[in-house]
Amino acid sequence: MAQWFVTCLLTAVLAGRVVLSAESEERLVTRLFNSSRYNPMIRPAQFPTEIVTVKFYLIISQLISVNEKEEVMKTNVWLAQTWMDYRLMWNKEDYDHVQVIRVPSESVWKPDIVLFNNKDGQYDVALYTKVLIYDDGKVEWLPPAIYQSSCAIDVRHFPFDKQNCTMKFGSWTYNGDEVDIVLDYAEAVMDDFKLNGEWDIIKSPSRRTLEGDEVYVHYDFVIKRKPLFYIINLIIPCILISSLSVLVFYLPSDCGEKITLSISVLLALTVFLLLIADIIPSTSLDIPLIGRYLMFTMIFVTFTTVTTVYILNVHHRTASTHDMPTWIRIVFIKVLPRILCIKRPAEEVVDAKEGAIRTSLYHKPREDALEMRKRNGMMTEGGRGFGAISRSSTSSPSMQQTERRHLAPELEDAVRHVKYIANFFKSQDDDSEVSDEWRFVAMVIDRICLWLFLIVCVLGTLGLFKEPLFYGDDD
């Protein structure tokens, strides 16, 4: 019973104290914001020349996005502002030790600090939260805001770039002789910052500037892009496509797909260039790194296509269309193949093969020839016949003319036709040999271009991406 009585007594005391506190706070608010005593449109200065000092610092909660195309940085921030208002002081002993009250921000004077370099025309904060007023006259206001500030994008190192996006704050109506803005912290506060998937904030120093009699506060956000997305989706595909253009010179000319491969690579790079154009801002001040690499690759592939056309022209040359100069035969058939480790079939092997063919075609064994002559009744006195014909082929023209008189007309026609066929095949062999030489020259040029373009591709890629790889964090 006694315990229940004590509990009820304590509850009554506490309830009474709460009621007294609420009544005290109501009395305090009524006294402070009496219309005859306080006007929220009047600057809290005791005399006209007094400067109201506003302590200001920025709390960044989230870097929402950076739009490179429109050059906009979107952030979620809190604007912490503190100033003294002598009209809002009280003795806490008179109001049951009430030390702080919370009132709507519309009820008090505010320094109307706004973002000057906004991009969407929204100068104001997102929510007019309540202000905290302390018994010594200190006023604290912490309104949240979602700002879209302008940011000059430097595309020179895209996608390995860093940007410096500045947010400029200042009082919209008061100059430095009336309201002075001072910084409370040297950098933006990032205690509750949420990480962004594309950008890292390297540093965010603050600075106070004077422009005439105007006071401004700047926050310079140095942000660095996380390039993994662009490496996977842009850089690596571009490098692989560039390597395909080098393999054009390793593709045999007889397959008929060299030009097709070159044009396909050129079209693929054009598609990548269109994708880049949709991402980067429309500026002529700088060319982005990935754009420079794509242009280098496109020029590279264009030269590859032109060179391939010339190589195919050399490959399909014949004795009837082109005569091979002596210097080409020396340089591209004798000298360069040794340097490039290109081997041709040994000439003695080819000569032995041709000798075997001629022997099988024109030099039958003597026994077979005698048997043929006996079978056809062509054996004559003095050994005339095919033997005479064969001997006549090696004798002088006068002797051949004398021996032909003793041949029948049918044999003369046969001999003439055989000589025509022999000359035809010999001409074909000569033409084939010249065509083979032109094909070999084309293969040597292919090999030279393979190594030359490979070196240019590797050095060009390293040269373009060298600077971003050693791109430091300090600007």
Automatic annotation (TrEMBL):
Residues 234-465 form the Neurotransmitter-gated ion-channel transmembrane domain. The chain crosses the membrane at residues 228-251, 263-281, 293-312, 448-465. Residues 25-227 form the Neurotransmitter-gated ion-channel ligand-binding domain. It is a multi-pass membrane protein. The keyword Cell membrane applies. Keywords: Cell membrane, Disulfide bond, Glycoprotein, Ion channel, Ion transport, Ligand-gated ion channel, Membrane, Receptor, Signal, Synapse, Transmembrane, Transmembrane helix, Transport. Pfam families: Neur_chan_LBD, Neur_chan_memb. Belongs to the ligand-gated ion channel (TC 1.A.9) family. This is Neuronal acetylcholine receptor subunit beta-4-like isoform X1. It comes from Branchiostoma belcheri (Amphioxus). The gene is LOC109476610.
